[in-house]
Amino acid sequence: MRAIVRRGLWTGAALTAATATAMMSSSTIERGSPWAGLNAMATAAVPTRRATILFQRDITPLGFLLLGGGLLGWGLAYQGLLAKARPERRRGLLLAGALSALGGYAVDALVMPDRLLPNFRRAMGNSGTLAKYLALGVVSFLAARPARQRRLAGRKIAVLAADGFEQVELFGPARAIDEEGGEVEVVSLRPGKIVGMNVDVPGRRVRVARTIREANPGEYDALYVPGGFIGPDFLRQSQEVREFVRAFDAAGKPIAAICHGPWVLASAGVLRGRHITSWPGIRDDLVNAGATWRDEAVVRDGNIISSRGPQDLPAFTAALVDFFTGTKPTPERPWAPAASSPQRSSPPALALAGAALLPKVATARRVLGVAAAFAVGLAALPALRALAAFARRV
Question: Considering 104, 124, 147, which residue would you say is the last residue of a domain?
């Protein structure tokens, strides 16, 4: 769902840019002013009985707001419909673009006030009005992606996480699973929303689908345990969590873990005799649990696949999807040495730098957020003034 919204907003922004360019270019040719088309939209939005519409530059911001707001909504609806229809061939994408252009015309003709289309033609000419809808169709076609077969369709993945999970390690793989058609359910120790972390800075929250007491391992096809300094430590102390993990391993179902996630597997007692990797800081815990620790980006042993941390997410995410689908499996390493990789001589420099810088980044984001809200308010003032002035004139 989040991917659809993201594509919809980008599509809406592209539609706004292309349509505004077409309107401004054609109205410059037709009337000698780039603002006439946008002003026609602004005047059509305000009730008036005046037969003559004046094209004035001072109400252009209102036209931009109406155009941008409408097309952002159009982009979201368009991508939502594409996600349902899932066109797989170029012909289907061409049809989607054509329907988007016709839909834009239908909204203008049937939903907007009666005077809108005549004002468009007056401001931009018939060819300019056609250019607007052509731009709408072309960008819609370019923004459409051909659907592909989703390899995890029909599969249900349990993501076992608790407060303090590493944010990027949950959302990145979960997004990849979702894009492949898999259903992701977050299972945790408590209901509601749990909070993620960016190393040592609180981050986004995610809603829990089921608590560990409500979750049944038999309903899931695979298990994923993201990392984080705090969340896995909470999980490993729960008897119900340990039994949940053991049930997956006993059934031979795929289990994936990253960073500090293997802590949970160690406490569940499923690592003895296995090859595993993790965040280097918990190497000794895994070795003491009977595992052979490998300092590698992705390690697979039987039904368990593991990774070291955020730095390995691209390779791990691709391997995780393949692992859960059973296609192109990450090869097991029976030839790997029996001895574990040596201990690290120092913590990862990138992690130390992140722990120092991320609190400052979080503060800067808050300051920029306040400044952006203030800037948006200032930018909206001309449109509000134009609307008020226009209302007084009519």
Answer: 147
Segments forming the whole domain that contains residue 140: 2-147
Q: At 49, is the pLDDT very low, low, confident or very high (cuts 50, 70, 90)?
A: very low
The Cα angle at residue 192 between residues 187 and 198, in degrees rounded to 5? 75
- The span from the CA of 307 to the CA of 312, in Å, is 7
Domain of 278, CATH number, reads 3.40.50.880
Residue 347 has pLDDT above 80, yes or no: no
Respond yes or no: is residue 260 known to be catalytic. yes
State phi, psi for 219 to the nearest 5 degrees.
-85, -5
**Burial class of residue 358, CB neighbours in 10 A (0-12, 13-18, 19+):** middle
Q: At 138, which amino acid appears? A: V
Number of separate domains in the chain: 2
Q: Which of these is catalytic: 260, 275, 294, 308?
A: 260
For the record, the structure tokens of 346 come out as 């120092």
Length of the chain: 394
